[in-house]
Amino acid sequence: MHFSGKSFQYLLVAAVLLTSCKQERPYTEISPLERMDPKRMEAPFPEVAIPESADLTSPRWNGIDLSPIAPLNPLSAADEQKTFVLQPGYSMTPILTEPLIKEPAAIQFDGNGRMYVLELRSYMQDIDAVGELLPTSRISRWEDKDNDGVYEDGVVFLDSLVFPRFVVPFGPGTILSMESNEDNVYKYTDTDNDGKADKKELFATGLGRSGNVEHQTSFLTWAMDNWMYSTYNSKRIRWTPDGIIQEPTGNPYGQWGVTQDNYGQVWFQDGAGGVPRNFNFPIVYGNYSVEEQFQKDFRVPFSLVRLADFEPGMRETKPDGSLNNVTGAAGNDVFRGDRLPKELVNQYFYGEPVGRIVRQVYSDKKEGITSIQNQYLDIKSEFIQSTDPYFRPTDMATAPDGTMYIVDMYRGIIQEGNWTQEGSYLRTKILQYQMDDVIENGRIWRVSYEGMERDKTQPRMFEESAAALVKHLEHPNGWWRDKAQQLLILRQDQSVESDLVKMAQNSDNELARIHALWTLEGLGLLKKDLVLGFLSDKSSNIRIQGLRAGETLYKYGNKGLEKSYIELTKDTDPSVVIQALQSAFILKIPDHEDLLKKLEATNPAKGVQLVTKQLLEKIAETKKMAETQYSPEELVLFNQGKTIFDSYCATCHGVKGLGTPTGAAGGQLIAPAFSGSPRVQGHPEYIVKTLLHGLTGAIEGKEYEGVMIDMSSNDDQYIAAVASYIRNDFGNSGSFVNPDYVAQIRANTSQKEDNYQYDALIAEIPKILAPQDNWKVSASSTSLQGVGSTRDPSYVFGFKGWKTDGNQKNGSWFQVELPQPATLTEIFFETGNDQYPRKYKVSISKDGRQWTEVAERTGENGSLTTSWATNMKVKFLKIENLEDADKPWSMRKLSLFAR
C-alpha cells in the first residue's frame, strides 16, 4: 500500500495561515467550550453521575464536578498548532498527520533517514478496550523525497501486528520488532526492495512478558556500548557475528521509553511513576537507591488543561482543575542534535500525556551523583504546553535534520482499559466530556528555533563506504554518530581499523573519540594499548569510557588491565572512582570486596559512599541468595559444573562464556559463545549429545578454529554438571540436566562412533513447533473471560494462558490438531497458583479416533516437561486430567516439540 500525502499537508499549511488571519485574541485565552463544533453543541449534554459502586470515602471523588458540559471536539492539526504554548523562539510544525497515520506511539529512523512509525491502531478504540489485541496495528515507513520538510511518501512496511512493542531499524530494509504477549524478537526484512517486509527470522528470545499492554517490554534500544536495552527486562542483549549474547542487569523499571545521552548513559522512562529511572549509573551494574536524584517539586507538572480527567482524581488536582503530580509519562529523548540552541544539547525530554506537556530536564552532577529538575520550575512552566485536551505526547526523538520530533497520539483516552472500568473515577470524567470517541488520529511535529534552519542533508548511509561512515562519527548531531557506528558494526568491515584508531587517539572531538573507541570494540578490534591511553587521558569522560570499554577485553581474558582498574579507584574525580569500582565489581576482579571496603572508609565523596555501601550490600545478598537460589541437588551440579568450566572449557569458550578471540586481528573466536545462545538454552538434548560425542565443522555456516572433542569418558554426573552450569550462567536461563537424563541419551546413542556434524545433530534434536493459525485447539472446558465471551483455548501458547471453567475433573482434556503429521516427542507448559493437573496423561493419534498413550505424569507448580520415545507421525495430541481437584486446571506457554 502506497500513500501520497503532499496535497493534504499543503492544505494544513493553508488552513494555518487562514485561521491565523482571523484570530482576534490569543488561542490560549479561548476556553474549550468556545471551540466546540456547533452541531455537537446543539445536542443534549450528557447527564453523568457518580457511579453507585464508587467508594465515596476515597479522596479521588472529593469535590468532583459532574455538571453537564458540551463535548470536547478534536481539532485539525492546523488548529491544534495554535494551542501550543512554547518557550520564546520555538515553534512546532506538523510533518506527518492523520489520515496518513493513525495512533502513532513511537518513531525511529534508518540509515537513509526514513522514519518508521509504530501505529498502535488497536489501542483503546473504545472505553472498554474491546479488540485491544486484534492484529490491526502496523509499522509504516515514511520519506521526505522532495526535501521540503514534510514526510509525504509512505509504505506499510509491516502489517497485521498485535500491539507491537517497538521498532528498531537494523540495516538496509530491516527492522526488529516484537508483539504483545510474546517472548520473541523477530527480524523483518524487505528482500525485494518493494517497501514491505517479506522475510521473518527469529532474532532473540526471552525478552517478552504478558499482562496489561502498558506493562510489557518496550523500546529496545541499541546504545553506545553496543548492547541493546529495553524496559522491564533485567538483561541486555547484543548482536555479534556469532549470534545474540546476553547479560544480566538491574531492573530498569522503565515503562515506555529508553534513550541515551552523549556519553552512553541510558535513561529509562517510567510510566505511572511519571519520572525518569536509572539515569545515575549504567543499569548493567545493578540498581541503586539515590535519594537525592529528584530535586524538590520535580514531580509538579504545569498543565494548561484543567479538566481533572486523570486516574488519581481530585486527590491530585490543583484548585484550577489541572494535574498536580506527574502520573502518566511516556516517551523520552536526550536531545543530541545541532539545529536547536546549544543549551538543549544532552538534556533529557519526556512527555506527560495526562498533563499534556513535554518536560525539559536540567541535570546537575555533584560528587558523582546526578540530580534533576524541571528546567522551567522557577517560572512554573514547561518546555511545551498545550490547551488542547487531546494533545498526547507519547514519544520524541532527535531527528536526522538536527531538530526534535514529537509524536502526538492525539486522542481522548490515554490510559488503558484497566483504569477506565465501570465505576471508576476516570471513566466518569471521560463520559462527562464525551472523549471516548476521539480515536484514529495522530500527528508528528518538528520543534524548530528561529534563525536555526533544519539540516537539509538527506542521509544515504546505506550506499556509503565504510570510510565515509567513519567520518560521520565526528558529526555534531548524535543521531548521525549513533547510526554510523551501528552500521559499521553490522557490516563488520575491518578495513577502517586504522582510521578508527587514529580518530580515537587524535581527534579534537571528544565525542568522536568515544564513538571510534566503541566502534572498534564492536568490530572486535579493540586493543589493550588504546584502552590504556584512554585510562590515562586528561579528560575524566575519556577515562570513564576507557574503563567501560576495557571490560570487554577483561571478559575475553586480558587480565593485564587489572592494575589499571585498581589504580583508577584513586582518581581525583568521584565519577571516575565510581566507574572503576563498578567495573571491578562486575568483572569480579580479585579482592574487589576489600577494595570497596577500603574506599568506603577513605573516600568521603557522596557518590563514592553511596556506591560502595550498596555494592557491598549486593555482594552480601548474592552470597545469601546463592545458598537458596537452587535446590541442594541443583547447587551441587552448578558448582561442580563451574569448577569444570573454569579449569577446562574456558580456554576455548572464554572466561565469561563469550568465546576466546583468535586470528591475526582478534576478530575470530576459537569456539562459539555460550552467553545468550539459543542452542545452549534450548532443548537439553543438544548440549548433552555435543558433550558426549563432540562436534566438528561449521555451526550455522560459521567455522571456528577449535574442535569440540567428545567427553564421553566422563561419567553422567560430570556431563550433567557441565550442561547445567552453562545453561544457567552467562545470562542464560535453562532447565538443569539430570544425570539420569544423560544416561538415557548415552544409551540411545551408544552406537555412534564419530563426532557430530552440526546439521546432522540439529536434525536429531526436538524442535519447538511454532503455533500457527491453522492449528485446531479445543478443550472439554474453558473459563469465561468476560460476560458473553470465552477465552480462546489457543491462548495456551502464550503468556495469557488457558484454564478450565471450574475445578479440575477426572476426564477433562485439552487437545491440539495439527494440519500436517509430525513426529511429536515432548511437551512443555507452565502452571502455578496451585492450578496444576494433579495427575495427567498424554496421548497421540493419527486420526483423532484411535489413541496411543505415551506418558503419564504427576503435576506440580512451575514448569512441566513430558517426553516420550515413540517415533510415530501424528496429527493429534491430547492431555487428559486423571484426578479431581478443588482448583481449576491452567496452562500457559504450551510448547510442542517434534523431531
TrEMBL record:
Matches recorded under InterPro entries: 6-blade_b-propeller_TolB-like (IPR011042), ARM-like (IPR011989), ARM-type_fold (IPR016024), Cyt_c-like_dom (IPR009056), Cyt_c-like_dom_sf (IPR036909), DUF7133 (IPR055557), FA58C (IPR000421), Galactose-bd-like_sf (IPR008979)
Keyword tags: Heme, Iron, Metal-binding
Coiled coil location: none
Domain F5/8 type C: residue ranges: 802-899
Source superkingdom: Bacteria
Leader peptide range in chain numbering: none
Residue span(s) of domain Cytochrome c: 636-730
MF annotations from Gene Ontology: electron transfer activity; heme binding; metal ion binding
UniProt-recorded name of the protein: Coagulation factor 5/8 type domain protein
Source organism of the structure: Cyclobacterium marinum (strain ATCC 25205 / DSM 745 / LMG 13164 / NCIMB 1802)
